[in-house]
Structures are given as C-alpha cells and as structure tokens.
Amino acid sequence: MSRAAASRTVEQSAIRKVAIRLVPFVALMFFINFLDRTAIGFAGPNGMNDSLALSAAQFGFASGVFFIGYIILEVPSNLALHRFGARRWLARIMVSWGIVSLLFTWVWNFESLVVLRFILGVAEAGFFPGAILFLSLWVPAQYRSTILSLFYLAQPLTTVIGAPIAGLLIQADGFFFGLEGWRFMFFGVAVPAIVVGVIAWFYLADSPADARWLTAEEKTWLTSALQKERAATESATGKHPSIRGALGSGRVWVLCFIYFGFIYGLYALAFFLPTIIAEFEGLYGTTFDVFQRGLITAIPYLPAAVALYFWSRDASRRGLKTWHIAIPAVVGAVTIPVALYAGSAVATIAVITITASAIFAALPNFWTLPTQFLTGIAAAAGIALINTMGNVAGFAAPYITGAVADWTGGYEAPMFIVGGFMALSALLMVLLSRRPHTAGQPVNTDPEVLDKYNP
C-alpha cells in the first residue's frame, strides 16, 4: 500500500470512529437537553396551564424566560469550557440542569414556574455552543457539516421520540405518589440528565490526543490536520484568535441575526405546536388523548430529520453554498403562516412538516460557517455570541406568540411574525454572500472562500 493510500485509510478510520464513538453520545446529551427545555410545551396544554391558571401570555413568558438566564451566562460558560475542558464542563452543565429540571415536579404557581425556568436557563447556559465547539475541535472543516448534521439529528428526534414519551408519562396521572401526569412527566425527563451527565465525566475526552479509542496513527493524523487548519486560518486572517476580535466581527453579528430568525421559527413551533394541535379538537370536531397528541406533535419532525441529513449531505458533497441556508429560510417563511389556513388537521400538519424540515435542514450547515474563520478562544466567544442571539429569539418567540395570540384571539398574526423573521434570515444570508470586503473583494459563504478573509 502506498503512503498516500495508507494515510487515506487512517483518515477514514479516524473520522468513522469519531462519528461512531463520540457523536452519538453528544447527540444523546443534546436530545435530553432539548427535551428538558421544551418539556413545558407538552405540560402546558395537558394540565399545567389549568392547574397553575396560566394565560397564553403567562405560558409564553414562562417558556421564554429560560433564555434570559441562558443568555446572561452563555459567553462566560463557553469561555470556561475552553479553559477547563469540554469533558468536565459539559458534564457539570448536564448534572446542574438535571437537578433543576427535577424541581419542576413540585412547581406550584406562575411565579415559581418563572423562577425555575430562569434558573434552568442559567444551569443549561453554554451547553449547545459548547457541544458545537467541542465537535468542531475533533474534525477538520471538510467533515464538519456531516458530523454536525449527525449531532443535530438529536433535535428533531427529540420530538419524534420525546413527544410520545412525554404523552405516556403525562397519562400516568396519579401513578407516582399521586402526582399529576404533567408533574410526573417533568420528573421522568429530568432523571436521565443527571445520570448521563455523570457518565459524560468518564466517557468524553477533551481532544483526539486524549482518546484511548483512537490508534496512535489516528491521533497523529487528526491532531496534525487540525493544527494545520488552525494555522492556515490564522495566517489567512492575519490575526491571532481573540475574544475582542470575535465579538467585534461584523460577519459574526450578521450570522447572529440570521440565526435569530431560524431559532424564532424553531421555538415558536416547539412551544406552541402542542397547543395548536389541542385546538384541532374544537376546530375540526376531532378528539385525541394525550398520547395521540404526542404522536401528532411528532409527525413533522421525522421528515425533518430525514431532510436535515440529506440536505447536509448535499452540502458536504457540493461544498456549502449560500442557497443551502437561504432556500430553507424562504420555505419556512412562506409555509409557517400558511399552515393555519390549510383547512384541515391533516393539511395543517403537512404544511408544518415542510416548515420543520426547512428549519432543520439549514441549521447544521449554518453552524459550519463560524468555524471556517474563527479558531481557538475566538471560536468559543463567536459561537457563544451567535447562540446568544438565538436564545434572545428563544425568549422572544414564545412570549410574543402568546401575547399576540391573546391580543388577536388566534395564532394567525403570530405566525406571520415568525414568517417575517425567517424571510429576514434569508435576505441577510444572501447579502452576506455578496458583502464586499474592504479590499474590494466579494465575501462568499462557501467554506473555501471564507477561509481567505478577515473576520
């Protein structure tokens, strides 16, 4: 075997091991993370809103206040991860939020719900950008879209699997020490976070050099490839990684606002889709039990997982193009308000399925962009800042949706607002790809082009 063929074999083996040994576990952590933060969406229309006497606006505020706590500590948490190592920090985050999630079992009024949601955000702060940064530090740029798409599959699958599970837990009304079903559901989704968080402390490794499951040749290849890529990026930008450079980057801020639109759409769906489905009974004369509602809620997310995988695979094969992100944003902008005028429960779910597929198809491809021109501590700060803006959307989406729904008496106007933000994301993505550089050169969003310009 030639030296080049041997090197290629080592490369393929190393990437395959990362995909098999590392990504599924981090995806499991993300699965539990997203289920815990969106569990309130299942609890609300299935007993919690009545038990706590919540209006739509109060439910929306309680759902969204989580993101205020998250936002406050987002960037500091990611910088701490960079300093102390992902293994310790991600495990610490997970156990912390698991303990807080457990306390939702005994929430007693609107005020206590708001306080716990805020503390949950503080506890979870930095997990998602930390996981993105962690995985980005394990594979070179050419494999990043594929690896992140495998990781991101956990998010739609959280609803595919998690919604029916939440429905079953809610149906176990009075089974556990007489707890109402929605309270038992909070208990049931919190315990896995604590258990998996403890396992993560021993299972994860901070870098390829620390991975016992890689051979010496695989460690050498991964470490060398990542070092060369980092050096090439710093050489191309002419700057060393810095927090100030990342937080002051115009391109990072444009990415912040693009991400805002996507996450606004994502959380409007995540928190209010179960409520909208519950209203089908009055609109269309149908009747669903809690488990059936969970299954219906899950329907849009299975095709979304398929769309995510194949859209990201296409981006990896062709090289990431502007339209890989802009087209899904346009599709989401058009379909999310149209869903409420579909005329039947089946047609509504079909249109929402297209919306969910569009949002999830774009997200893993989007997250390859900042790591193309940010490295080291700058990547930690930049990714955290972008995700912070997403969490602003995470607060704004449920609160504005609930408040406007109370004001207008329906969800039509709030969904047009969602569509408007997603349309803005598409526009900004196109403008970013055409933005002239200070030297008069165009800045594209293709990875091979991004590497050549200063942030």
TrEMBL record:
Source organism superkingdom: Bacteria
SUPFAM superfamilies assigned: MFS general substrate transporter
Chief location of this protein within or outside the cell: membrane
InterPro entries from the UniProt entry: MFS, MFS_dom, MFS_trans_sf
Localization: Membrane
Keywords, in A-Z order: Membrane, Transmembrane, Transmembrane helix, Transport
Domain Major facilitator superfamily (MFS) profile intervals: 22-437
Transmembrane region(s): 18-35, 55-77, 89-108, 114-138, 150-172, 184-204, 252-278, 290-311, 323-342, 348-367, 374-401, 413-432
Gene3D superfamilies assigned to the protein according to its UniProt record, in alphabetical order: MFS general substrate transporter like domains (1.20.1250.20)
Topology of this chain in the membrane: Multi-pass membrane protein
Record-linked Pfam families: MFS_1 (PF07690)
Record-given protein name: MFS transporter
